[in-house]
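re the bet — no i am not wrong, look at it urself. input seq straight from the record:
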Amino acid sequence: MNNRRIIFLLLCLPITAWSQSYQRTPNGIKARMQAIDVEVQFYTPQIVRIIKLPAGATAKDKSLSVIASPQNGSLTIADQRNELIVSSQSLQVTLNRQTAAIRFYTPQGHLLLQEKEDGTHFSPSADPQQYEVEQAFQLEAGESVYGLGQHQNGTMDQRGQQLLLKQNNMQIAIPFFQSVKGYGVLWDNTSTTHYKDSANRTSFQSEVGAGIDYYFIQGGNADKVIAGYRQLTGQAPLFPRWTLGYWQSRERYKSQYETNEVVRRYRQLHVPLDGIVQDWQYWSEDESYWNSTEFGNPRFPEPKKMVDSVPDQNAHLLIFVLLSFAQKKKI
């Protein structure tokens, strides 16, 4: 009997070891797998945050874009030999014990998105506390994704694209995409990021980061995905109604008289006009005092009078300010 009891205890040891390989948190789990610290945080039943760090590393203190906080909710955790499963009423997240790869499912078991088995990478950077980080996913063949900001590549579907997510003239970087399958991914990293997509690999690669940090939003449709995005990052206030009307603009108006005359002519012709844009070179007639945000051009001798005359004619004036790092202001 004693021998049988010893054998039974030895057989139970691996099971006990598996069950102690993670820590339950109020919003999900923490685990260490393959020298990677992984945290699964449910913000809502539909929104989950994934954090991956080299073992022992410290996550960033605060996001610059996400203002929401994780909410305590009803979660179930299934501890299986090959994976951990964390489920809410709307979403199921599995964490592979061998590879630390994560998959996202509907409650009915339909696969939405999966990380590549070898898709998590940390590379040294100049800062010993920071890394070059990459997370790769496997999308379905024929699955379209949209978003990632404003780019000049003439496409809406970002499959098969390689994009530099970095703010620039005519380029707006938003590291977020949503899929026709009814989910979205927000990559929470403010450094220069490369988005790359091919038939078998879709990835975000950021030049600097404490670790991998992203949010998965299960919406079921585009409207609910965007609602989840706004829940994370804050509600966008509506612009005043007058901003939605007709705006007159050209490369620039070269004098105070010209700007005022355009508005006057619209009113004379009874053509609706809500706003006019005063573009560049109001600061000088050439490249001097580049973007000084002051009216230094002699063709604008009375800028206050010009600005006041536009609302006097029941319109609005927008003064264009250039943000340029290529040229230095001359003083």
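see?? Residues 2-19 form the longest helix (18 residues). told u. also Residues 3-20, 325-331 have pLDDT under 50 and may be disordered. so pay up
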